[in-house]
Structure formats: structure tokens, C-alpha cells
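Table S2 (text version). Query chain:
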Amino acid sequence: MSHVPVTLRWEGEVGGHLVLLDQTRLPREVVEFPCRTVEEVWDAIKRLVVRGAPAIGVAAGYAVCLSVKNGRASVHDVVEACRYLATSRPTAVNLFWALARMRRVAEAATAVDGPALAEALLAEARAIHEEDRQMCAAMGRHGADLLADLPEGAGILTHCNAGALATGGDGCGLAPVFELARRGKRPHVWVDETRPLLQGARLTAWELTQRGIDCTLICDSMAATVMRAGKVQAVMVGADRIAANGDAANKIGTYGVAVLAEAHGVPFYVTAPTSTVDLTIPSGDAIPIEERSAEEVTEGFGRRTAPVGVRVFNPAFDVTPYRLIRAIVTERGVFEPK
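Corresponding C-alpha cell output:
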């Protein structure tokens, strides 16, 4: 298994900085992106330098620590930093979950001085990061148990990237695949390219090849053909927010994959930490869906592929209804969506 660079890390102690693996440069270049200000982390989240709901949450936790560098900031500054970071992306609930934890730590420390506040915040950010590592490992075990009866070389189809690049640990949607490989199984992963930003082609295929796991890259529109040919025995995806009724928001195109899976009798699984579950939202209809720039569709990666002036609709996510989801895998076990 090749060395896979870590998605993010904190460099130093109090007064240190956040280092991100720049996912906009993969797979051509493996480049780290240092962040020394809250604004730089906000920009990194917005531009998808760091992406994936759990990884965004971890990055946001560390970003709050940057608001109290050198012990000069107050609780007010921390609260303002949390409000600002919350405007970076709207759909991934882990962002708001992590920021709420950091804000609670700051508000509980109103009587402490700057250095003590900084230490408390860094300890909480590190706790969020470590908890994510542990949750990824647990999801991997539960998901691998769920798929344990699949035959050798069984096909598992993925959409977008839900591996280590999307988390602070070993991934969510790909964690069961990695665990199956550790157990000596040889799963074969069918990787949807994931238009328009190609997270499957650029990131998932890169992760799998780095780890020596058999995979085949396909265009999104080929998934039905692969399923019809009997090459897919399970679909495993991540999620950016799960509503109270089990509806799950994930990268655009996931809903279509779920419909195809039902049509072909293929079980469709969602793997996500409980921090992704938003019990304040009754159903997927209330999940805010981020819309991104038209240029991602018309000029993907710098080359124009559509007429100038054409109208574009570019939602970053869609919602899969709970009735299409066979089970949701979390760090606490495997559950029916509803």
C-alpha cells in the first residue's frame, strides 16, 4: 500500500497553523496548502481545497484556533470567526456542528485569559479531529461486516469521494472498502467520475490506486449499464447531511444512482458519522442545497465546453429519499434510514 498524504493537520502548538492537502491540484500534483488566518481557511473551504463534510468540520475547528493566535483575541472574536466560517458552504452540517462545539468552549471560558482560551480551543479542535479518526475506523468495521457476505471480487460502486480525502481519518463511504481490503478481501470498486468537478476521477480513483485497491473508472452515465451487466453488488456513498427521516444529501448525481440501484435490485448504502445527522430538519426537502458557479460546468478546469451565455443550473448536491436507502452505516452501527 502506497503512502497517502494526510488530508489535514495542525502544525505546532498554540500559535501554530493548519496545513491542508490541496485537493484542487490532485491527481496531477500533491501540494500542501498552509492556512495561517481564518480567511485563508474560509477560502480553502469555498474553493474545495478541503472538501467532504467531516473534513470541512475538522478544518473549521482548527480555523477557529487561528482567531486567537498570540493570545490577543477575545471570546467575541471567536464567536465572530464562527459566524464567518459558517458562511463558507451551506450544505455540510458537520461544518456547523464543529463550529457550535468550538463556540461552546469559548463561551464557557469567558473568565480565562487569552493564552488559556487558545489552549482550550486547540484541545477541542484536536478532539474533533481524533473523534473523526475513530468514527471512520468504526464505520469501516461496521460497513465491512455488512458487506462481509459479498463474493470475492464483488463490485462496489461509489459516487464522488468519501475516502480519507473527505475526512480526518480513513473515510466514510470508502472506509468499508479499505477495511475489507485489510481483511484480505479483494473488492472491485466502480468509480463514477462525478461531474462537473470529477471528484470520483480525480480523488477517489487516486486514493484507491494509491492503496492498491482494484478499481475501474466510469462516466456517470455508464452506471446503469454496469449494473445491468451484473457487475455491481452494492452501492456505497457518503453524505453531507442526513435529515431526521433518513433522507440523505450527497454530491449531485447520487439520487440518480440510487434510482438506478433500485431498478436493478442493487442495495444502496449511505455511510456517514452521526455528526452528519441533522435532527432539526424533518426531511430532505428542508436541506439547503448549495448552488455553485456556472463556470464549473461551462469551463471545467479552464477549457470552455459550452456556448458563451448559455444558462446553467449547477446544484452541488441532491437528496436521496430514505425509501431508496437500504441502510445507513454510522460509527454506532447499521440502521434503517427511518
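Notes on Table S2: The chain has ten helices and 14 strands. The longest strand covers residues 17-21.
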